[in-house]
Structure formats: C-alpha cells, structure tokens
Design goal:
By secondary structure, the protein is α/β, with parallel strands linked by helices. It is built from 8 helices and 8 strands. The termini are close together.
Length: about 260
C-alpha cells in the first residue's frame, strides 16, 4: 500500500463516524450513510446492531447506501452486509469516496453498486493485533484463515474471475478504481466523478499485456475484454447469490 493511501486511511480511521438513516423525497425510499470506521461497541452508531435497529421496522422499497469508509471490524462488516442482503428493499450502494476492507464487504452486498470514476474499493486479507505465546499466535492465525475464507465468499458471489485469481488479489491488498471494480463484477456502474482532490491523479490502466506491472492490471484487462464482448450478446440472468454468511462470535479488526 502506498504511503498516500496509508495516510488517507489513517486519517479516516481517526475521524468520527457518521451513520445516518434518512427518508427520501419519494415514498418508501430511504438513504443510509455509512461514513468513517466500521464496528464498535453495542450502542455505537456504526455497529451491526445499530444498523439492524435502524432498518428492522422500515417499510422501504428502495434503500440507497452511501459509503465512505476505511473499514474496521470484519464481523460488523459481514453482519451489516447480511442485514442489507436480507432486507426486502432493493439495495443500491453508492461508493462516495472509498469502500476499503470491511466497508468493501458491505458494498458488494448491494443489488446494484455504483462507483463514481474517482472513487476506490480495497480488498485484502483479515488482520489483527495479538499478544501471547506461540500457541496463542497459532490459534489466531488459524482463526484469521477461517475469516479469510468467509470474506472471500462475500466477494465470490460477484467476482467474475476464478477463485485462485480472487485469492491472489486478496493476498496483494488490492486497490481498485471504479472501472477495475466493474471489470471484476464487484461494482455495476461507473458513475459521474465526485470532486475528491487526492484521488484525481490516478493514471489510466494499460491494456497491452507486455506492459502489465502486476496481477491486478492483467486481470482487469482480461475481464474488461469479456464485458465488452458480452455487450453485443443477449444478457444473461444473474445467478442467485450463494447462501449468506452470518458470523457473530469473534471481533477482529481489519487494518
């Protein structure tokens, strides 16, 4: 991860979270804003419990979920994603700035995911802090591998590539532009640009295979080409999402 993105994420982690649920102008249409770190104590606004309380009694037909978050608790992210997927309303996710780490798990839970062209998504492996002897670290490592499998399952329902390719992208702590996320199936639409100065200078990706610098660029070109080809073919019905994971026993943080 570049120093620039580390500084951005550190800055966002230090900000007060802003989680709001507002009625829209249209009947039975609402907006949920998830800004700042994910997870916290039982009564904090950004916990899965808080989101559940906000949504459980709402008779909504459409919910717009706006995200700008560096991530946080893996299990709050998974739980919030499952809450959204299980809600009867159509869930439209808007990545307003960044959907990183646990926030990306929430983002891919949407029925439709919209990313303005200067926003980003980041996916990676689970991580945590630990203290203790070798046995404690062995146990923590085993738990993290199980969490990694569950998080990969959250992405897999949308990811258009192979499982091994997804695993490599997670290993490499991959930042995705809007176009890259759409190419991989993790987002659906590249929206109009939002003015975010620190993300404006990202370069265009090269499509020539000989000039690929890493796995992500190669895979983006591969699946972008497939999407362009499919535009001229009859649309296929989207597959039914796999059974949803619901995990609540462990509280670990994603960096």
């Amino acid at each position: 991860m570049s120093k620039e993105f580390k500084d951005q994420i550190k800055n966002m982690m230090n900000k007060k979270n802003d989680v709001r649920f507002e009625a829209g102008e249209k009947d039975k249409e609402y907006s949920l804003y998830i800004y700042g770190p994910i997870g916290g104590f039982f009564f904090s606004d950004n916990s899965a419990q808080s989101i559940r309380r906000k949504l459980q009694s709402v008779d909504a037909e459409k919910i717009h979920v706006h995200i700008n978050s560096p991530g946080g608790s893996a299990f709050d992210g998974v739980a919030i994603g499952n809450i959204l997927k299980n809600h009867k309303a159509e869930i439209i996710v808007h990545v307003d700035g960044m959907a990183a780490s646990a926030a990306s798990v929430i983002a891919v839970a949407g029925d439709k995911v919209i990313m303005p062209e200067n926003t980003m998504m980041m996916i990676h492996r689970a991580s945590t802090f630990e203290y203790g002897n070798a046995a404690v670290f062995d146990k923590t490592a085993s738990d993290l591998r199980k969490i990694d499998a569950s998080l990969a399952a959250s992405y897999k329902k949308r990811f258009v590539g192979e499982q091994s390719e997804l695993e490599q992208l997670l290993d490499e702590e991959t930042f995705l532009t809007a176009e890259e996320a759409v190419a991989f199936g993790l987002a659906d639409i590249v929206g109009e640009e939002i003015e975010i100065q620190e993300l404006e200078d990202l370069g265009d990706e090269e499509e020539d295979e000989e000039e690929f610098e890493n796995l992500k660029d190669k895979l983006v070109a591969k699946y972008s080409a497939k999407k362009n080809k499919q535009k001229n073919e009859p649309p296929e019905q989207k597959p039914t999402p796999a059974n949803k994971q619901n995990m609540s026993k462990l509280f670990l943080n994603l960096k």
